[in-house]
Amino acid sequence: MNPTPPDDRPLPLETVEDAAAYLEGLINRERATNYAYRRLDLRPIEALMEALGRPESTLSIIHVAGSKGKGSTCLFAESLLLALGERVGTFTSPHLVSWVERFRVDGRAIDGATLVAAVERIRPIVDALRGGPEETRPSFFDATTAVALLVFAEAGVDRVLLEVGLGGRLDSTNVVTPDVTCITSIELEHTDKLGETEALIAGEKAGILKPGVPGVVGPLRDEAMSVVLTRAAQVGTTLRTFEGDYRIASGASSDEVLVVDSPDGFRAACGLATPGDAARTNAALAIACVRALGVYRDADIARACRAGLAGCSLPGRIERLAADPLVIVDSSHTARSIAGLVDALETLAPGGFDLVLSVSADKALDDVLAPLIDAEGRGRIVTTRAEPARSMPADMLAKRIDELAERRGLGFSALDVQAIGDPEEAMRVARAALEPGRMLCATGSVYLAGVARRVLGGVSLR
Hints:
This protein is an alpha/beta fold. The chain has helices spanning about 15-25, 45-50, 70-85, 110-130, 140-155, 190-195, 200-205, 220-235, 275-290, 300-310, 335-350, 365-375, 395-405, 425-430, 445-455; strands at about 60-65, 90, 105, 110, 160-165, 180-185, 215, 240, 245-250, 260, 265-270, 320, 325-330, 355, 380-385, 415-420, 440-445. The strands form three sheets. Strands 4-3-2-5-1-6-7-8 form an eight-stranded mixed sheet, with helices on both faces. A six-stranded mixed sheet has the order 12-13-17-14-15-16, with helices on both faces. Helix 8 (about 220-235) links the parallel strand 7 and strand 8 (about 240). The longest helix is centred in the first third of the chain and has 19 residues, at about 110-130. The chain is globular and about 60 Å long.
């Protein structure tokens, strides 16, 4: 970042790196592992949006929460709405390679100049609030959310896909009044902040439900679904539930990878570029969200599915790198999503696969690791630490894998684990050691997915 001039007034931000350094320099509570979740509050983001003139009030928003699948659901809904002729803004996090990826307009990351201008716009307000009472001091994610809403308002988009950062009830994105809410899934994740049961986590995520705003819910287990239904009744909203109001059916042909139908007669059939049950579920959620808007005829939505979803690629979601087709990159980081990845690898890697693995320190680690360790065709594992503030150290992760393998009766000859702390080096070493006929899969972390795309995929966004 530019140096501060003698009169202590900061120089204007000029580059994406300047903007990123400013945002990352804020108190980053949502990345820390030792704060009390109950101390989060919507007052800082409310104060920030009020000072900006409430840009979010001009936006029509689909607000998406969930333990897994919320980013994919947003991107599928983005493709559908673009196929319907809308201008669309999409906010997801974190990014894989560059900060601009978090803010998409019409299916593409914004340019660096747009990001810099938005951060420059919010900076004096954020700095002023951070110098005031503690209860209204914006966090890193407050500022990032404000940037997104400002960018989309100034771009004049027709619709916004807004992904929750953490939880829902106290998340910065919950400052908005959306047109549709969505809860994709609920699993045990961030248990130190959200609670140690699915019911407690469901209560946090159901905090995005709003009176009179239709909601869409993915396939939840009974414990979580009961909490969400109770919350919906309390606030006065109608939910569209998986299997109850929409479902995934069998296709009439091999081209119909996804078929969604509903008791009210709606039916859409299309192909999907991304393999796996998780992709089909998230695409079905996206379709249900677009229907819940109540502004398009079913026939038009069905046509948009065929036009928009078949070519919708999901960066970092079971992604086979174009620059190196022997490498699969996936950002799965929960037990169920890892299990889905293993199922997909049976088809994508029939000759077996090696792993590069980084996992957040706050995960239910054994549940995440077990499907990978048990997977047929799994070979050597390189552990690494993709994100210093959140990821488990590579040597500790390797030790946990060895311990889990021993408990599961796997001989050490069947489990070759190497710890390499530097994630870029880990990717290069694992790729160089890959034997003919095998695939390399990098998984367990969004941050590792970004490293893999940059190091082996040649992806670079500025």
